[in-house]
Amino acid sequence: MHDDSQQLVLSDQSLVATNILLDDFTPSFSLNITFPKSHKTVNLGNRLKPSDVSSSPDVYVHAIGGQVDSRPTPTIRSNTTYTFVLTDPDATSRSDPKMAEMCHWIVTKITLEDADSVHPVVHLPPQFHALAAGFSFEELGSPDVIAEGKPSELMSYYPPAPPPKTGYHRYVFVLLADNSRDAAGPTKPKERPHWGYGKVGKGVRDWAADNALVPVGADFFYAKNKKQ
Q1: Following CA atoms 130, 134, 135, 140 in sequence, which dihedral angle do they give, to the nearest 10 degrees?
Q2: 220, 53 contact by CB (below 8 A)
Q3: Could you report the per-residue pLDDT of 80-99, keeping only the tens digit for each?
Q4: Contact indicator for 109, 81 with CB cutoff of 8 Å
Q5: Which one of 33, 119, 124, 202 has the lowest number of neighbouring Cβ atoms within 10 Å?
């Protein structure tokens, strides 16, 4: 993924102006998201079929611009914890988003592994794979170099399944950095629709703000039901 292209698209009205993200932001990380069963990759608004995304993806997360600890911000240091989410701002349809936003996935308490001090990656320990089937990060070859921590799947992966005759939905992945220093981590939404807030339009922006999380990376794809 080209970093300049990512910044351009994330600043476009398709994401930021609809309040999916907290605010217009410059990403600190680039995301490489691939669905292993279908071999399909998310690429800044490309179109995928629901069958392509029926199981959770493999995600590779790389710091933009070099070493993590060479950048003096608390959201991109090696001891920062991260949360990875998937949301649908177009449920049930883009013209009538009465169920939006819909929470599709939350994985939290992820830590950075500064693998080679140049291209750091977010990494999950092998024991987590059983909890989040298919959710994995770049293999480093040895369990001895895995970052300490206990990532947890706060909301299980809910495969995108846009209803018939609702057109294309945007499905947005966001990587969030924890600014709170709260060891307990983010709170679980009460339900998936509206991220538990019970009001149309509520979602990642509100949940992240309530949990002191800030966006540091994002990507998205479009999908629709074959019946239109």
Answers
A1: 90
A2: no
A3: 788 889 999 999 998 999 99
A4: yes
A5: 119
